[in-house]
Amino acid sequence: MAPYFQTVKSFTDVPVTDAGVDTLAFLEACQGVLVLFDILGSTAFGPVTSDIKGNIVKVRARYDAAPTQSTTLEELVKNEQGEKKRPATEGLMWLLRGLSFTCAALLNAQANSTEELSVAFTKGYDTTLKKFHNFIVKGIFSVAMKACPYRKDFYAKLAADPAGGPSTPDSIVNEELDKWLAALNLIVKRMEAFYEKHGYNKGF
Length: 204
What we know:
The longest helix has 29 residues, at 170-198. This protein has a single domain (21-198), classed as Glycolipid transfer protein (Glycolipid transfer protein, GLTP), CATH 1.10.3520.10. The chain is mostly helical. Helices cover 66% and strands 2% of the residues. Strands 1-2 form a two-stranded antiparallel sheet. The chain has 9 helices and 2 strands; from the N terminus they run αββαααααααα. One of its GO terms (molecular function) is ceramide 1-phosphate transfer activity.
């Protein structure tokens, strides 16, 4: 297994049942996304990681306040409705948007092995977050896209052994990344449909 996937909880390990998406496992896997942006290594992604961190905190705060009503993401959101402010509902909505961007960018990278990350991430941004951002935020993201590391350097970091051992073969890195992305994509699409169906994305 590639070192990155040994050190974080994969979205493939987040239980998804008819009842919903397991809240705590999902939040733990989201921490791994922050590690992924650390691997990307550019300070230009600071606003992205800050946003993801802040929204994880909002969702976790709701879980801690009402754990028995928040075992799944769906329950957590449902049980916050009717309150004057819905910080967890809004936080999860933006967290999902950030995850959608990350997923789309890396799916592009996986589908086009000759494409540099700056191109893959720009395409991902254009199809996900861009429509929600104003002119200033779009400018910040434009800078971040240009600051993406070279593709070969990023994939080499995913494969590298921090202890100095041999790197993981590319085939295994790609296989694990594909599984991680497939599971993430499934959760994001499921939750986006849930928000849309019940109108939980309204009012923010």
